[in-house]
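Worked example
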Amino acid sequence: MSSNSTYAIMLTSTIGYISLYINFITIIAGTIGGICNLITYSAPRLRKNACVFYLLCATILEIFSILIIVPTRIALDSFGNNLENQSILFCKLRYFISIVVPKLVTYYILLAIVDRCLATSSNVRIRSWSQLKVAHQSSMFVLIIGTITGIHILVFYNIFNAKCQVPAGNAYTIFFAVYLVVIVSLLPHTLMFIFSLITFRNFKRTRQRIIPIVSGVYSVRTKRSDSQLITLVVIQVIISSILVLLRLGSYTYSTLTSGNLNKNANEIAAENFALKLGFSLYYFSFATSFYFSTLTRKFFRNIFCKRVRALYNFFQHLIN
């Protein structure tokens, strides 16, 4: 056996174990964390806050991704399921869901930081846009537009050369690569970065004017809660930005070179290594928001604990 073959086999085996462990951790930790986020964000104290509503939408889609997309990937990679290369319908639906749903999560997080930017503005008219009614309309708009702009995946993804992929060597290959780079990644994350900077600047300048999370007289406690909400969103922005770049590079390269039939075993193994690792880490970011964001902020940690105690007492009352 040649050294090249040995290297390819070792690389394939290594990423198989690594991705399997990461994906299982994502499912377990992500499901628990997602449920905990739902418990926190649905608290009566937070229900009328537009930013929290966006985070709630993102959480629901994160849980969907963790419970649907990740197990499908495990079945394909680790248990010999080859359905995506055999069924055209499954091929199209799988890639549509695995690209569009995470894209929607990204844009909901973007809306959350935009809302905090609006809420911290010194302009009354701009601040008035930070309200639940606007959040409902904006979230529905993003859902519809985000879904429509991904329909081309259902049209063009197909089984070529016994593999589920985009057609190689035509204009759509370039279009799809641009779609991944610009629409799915660079645009939302660039806007997140810009609005995060503006939000911190606004918050520093106009702390007395920020729209509070809870109604009532503005207090030091409310200032802290708003500050922690901003920090929570920014932490999610940073984690999402870093991990999406890992997936983006490998995915785009794979798309652009899908028509190259002259790749040797090492090149194919290295490409699969990058793709699987990028996939696993990208969805692992969906499992981290509760532990790295919600749980580390005292305000939200207290709300979560109170909600858990209230739910515990409620079920205890039902049992008794």
The two ends are 68 Å apart (CA to CA). The chain has eleven helices and two strands. Residues 3-319 form a domain with the Rhopdopsin 7-helix transmembrane proteins fold (CATH 1.20.1070.10).
